[in-house]
Amino acid sequence: MENLYPPIVDGKSVYDLDSQKYLKMWQGPQHPGVTGNMSLELDISGDQVVKCKAHVGYLHRGFEKLMERRRYINCFPIVCRICVPEPDTNEYLFAAAMEDLLGLDIPERAKWLRTLNLELSRLASFVMWLGGQSGAFGMGTVAQWCLAHRDYVLDLFEEWTGARIYHMYMTPGGVRGGLPEGWDAHAEKVLDGIYKLLDEIRHVMFNNAIFKQRAKGLGVITPDMFDRFGIVGPNVRGSGSTRDIRKDTPYLIYDQLDFEAVTEQGGDVYARAKVRWREVYQSIDLIRQILKNMPRKGPLHITLPNVLHLKVPAGETYVRAESTRGEYGYYMVSDGSEYPRKVTVRGPSYTHAMALLEHLAVGVNTADVAGLMVSLHTYPPEIER
Amino acid sequence: MMRLQDILSPFYVWKRAFEKPFSIAVLSAPRPGSPTYRGFHQNDIDKCIGCGTCAEICQNVSIDMVPVKEAQDGDSGLRPRIDYGRCCWCALCVDICPTGSLTMSNAYTWVEEGLDRDVRETYCYTPGADPQPWDDEALGYRKPEGYELLHLERVPMPHLAPGERLNSFVEMVKGYSHELAVQEADRCIQCGICTATCPAHMNIPAYIKAIREDKIAEGLKILYETNPLPGVCGRICTRRCEDVCALSHRGEAISIRWLKRYLTDCASAEDYKALLESEIKPLDRKIAIIGAGPGGLSAAYYLAGMGYAVEIFEQNAAAGGMLRYGIPEYRLPYTKLDQDVAQIAALGVKFNYNACIGRDLSFDDLYNRFDAVFVSVGMFEPYRIGIPGDDNAKVISGLQLLSDVTNGVPVDLGRRVVVVGGGNVAMDAARTAKRLGCEVTVLYRRREVDMPADVEEIEEAREESVNFIFQAIPLEIKTADDGSLSFDWGKAEMVQQKPGERPQPILIEGSRENIAADTIIAAIGQGVNYLWMDGEASAKIELKKFRVQADRWGRTADTKIFIGGDMFNPTADAITAIADGHRSARAIDKMLNPPREN
């Protein structure tokens, strides 16, 4: 493995700006080619990136610290805000960590509804990402389609949970309500639309000469990098690995669903895009399976001890789930008081957007940096929780 | 590998040019939120009790409780005002609302014209009080079925079985165990609506919290701040706090009384002793208290705590008043009362028993010897039924029976007992007679719903197979040939005489029925005995409709004389008497204003 960082000679970087051979270029924090509010400090030579430094912190809202000063029930509405495009993983993990420490088991029907919620939010996140990936390579049309279809999924969420983005649905102890009447039919219509959209995307994105030319061979992740950079989710599955929390350590009712981890060979931007595109098919299939097999009657929620002064027994736990970006984890420590002593959010974007991106960007054409960055599917808010 | 298809395929996008656009024109045709959308709040302002639980759970502190109505029992008069600059639409406020008054509409647009208002005022409103277009919107978020943050059901209190109870005067309520008490205390949402309603304004949320956290000594201290008879009140309090408990609107009220009882039951002798540890600086002022009932005891406790030399004059041989002589032992064991009295005596209060003012001592004497007099003689003069034959020796008062049982006087009621009345004394007398082995029938003028007795008491009396005859008006009592009593009564019908008033029982013309009895117990109310107002000192006191007139501090026309308890307040229960005593103690202190070292 070559040295990650450029050599320093006599206390100075070899990429000496004064030599006028190199240029420093900032991509972000306000730039259409970055995913959310973060920035890349690029040293470029000609068209080539010779050094990349990722800067985060523009979106820091201090969620973990806020939680230490809030009662458990009051953490529930803020955790979803840690990740905007896919908030439900946070809701699920916070609730699951709390339930684990309290030693609670939630009703069966709530488990199915939670799985449905998680899968639907994965679907929305992937669809939005497909648009982002295509937009980063200059194809804004696909981005428009994808955002429109994501909005149709948000319509489903709105009907079901009463909110479009932050659903605040998986409350500790269960879920807040069942599916409204006629929801299944509406969902089927939306899924059908996305199914057709995927085919259109195949035409204009995966069969597109320009996309192929730019994406193939770009940002290749090799198996030796998996553990070194802590690569998870579609990023690792694009390189042939089958790492998938839903299969490896099934949670909720994933063990009752019929699916296989989606993998592609190649490890480049194209392969990762293909994984995500195929995972949308998988999500549609899983949602249909859930709607078919889900129990329609039964309790949705167990009443917790009074949430206004709920004390969680002292202890610690780590729970994880497969988000669209890979392993998402919550490490929760309770000291037995009414407030969580510490909640650490393990967002998969942290390693992907910083160490991995800094590594992969070297040698890349400046115009492809945006495409490369999006291909790692990073969401800055979960880096700076 | 590049193929020709890869060059042509992207032109597929042109297909979309002939299709309908995804976007919709929101401005020309507003899109309503979904039927369960979490939009702007609505509040049923008459259902809301201003408990502030919504503000308590709001993690963004976006809810302020602002005055909207006049406060009254069970309603703080405050209503939630929501700041939409802070609200995150999580709807926890809706979920936890104990009355269910707070909901959300599906409206999500609000255009506020002109920003000349204070920035803290913009996008804020009090739902229900400030009219908004979505006030009557039927759609929007409601708490879903089957999802509940509150525990609406009470932890059941273990009781003795009805059959078991009748054999003795053993206390029938067993009391909460530690586990049950903590479980019940956990239900409390600490809104404090109860505190405002309690006549003594006991800090109920604080002592419930102490139970939850297993801090018994601290809880006991909180009790004694406002109530020096907690052991008694934990058993027989009329608990108006529970009537207004926020949880009672959709579920069952917290068992506040039983929790108080739990605290006093599990407090150790050391805990009680610890309360006496703070040093009291004696003052050169003497206070006389007439009557050792809850009012007198309460005044004595707080005055003695301030350093006054307090002497109590009690006509009976033991302290407690109605608590001892009017409440049967199965509801309030004497040992518990003795414990509370001993705690008061430990402060240095001097008790003079068998000292009836007007009979054994003169009021003038007290008036001259002491700096102030607090009178709380209660109501010990039973009313008579007022029908021919009610002067028969076998017609006794409920109070007579209860005090005889307390004093250990043997009572012979015969086999058949008829109780006349529908209040708590009637219930106590009936159930005491039942425990003495009699067949008991209760006669009441009105319907069951009109009975002033506690619902629990009525239920328990039923469980103990006491018979009830409602809408029965006593007519005449005659002596039968065998020496037993023949009681004539007539059926009444309920007539609404004036709108808004409760219906009156009117005898149905010609109705006359008869019931045989060995003893008839009259329990239709009591009056005040004014024996103590004998001399010159009490001449200034004004009487109106047989009641002593006093201001809200219990101060009579003679500023040295204060009154309290049943003879003064209209509710005539122990907790109000305790509140009266505490209040008059402060008033007396203020009036005497003795010099104090800092």
Outline of this structure?
The complex is a heterodimer of chains A (385) and B (598). Chain A is of the alpha+beta class.
How does this model look, in words?
The complex is a heterodimer of chains A (385) and B (598). Chain A is of the alpha+beta class. Chain A has one domain (63-347): Cytochrome-c3 Hydrogenase, chain B, CATH 1.10.645. In chain A, 45% of the residues lie in helices and 13% in strands. Chain A has 14 helices and eight strands. In chain A, strands 3-4-5 form a three-stranded antiparallel beta sheet. In chain B, the strands form seven sheets. Chain B has a five-stranded parallel beta sheet, sandwiched between helices. A five-stranded parallel beta sheet of chain B has the order 11-19-12-13-14. Chain B is globular. Chain B starts with a helix and ends in a 6-residue tail after the last helix. In chain B, 43% of the residues are buried.
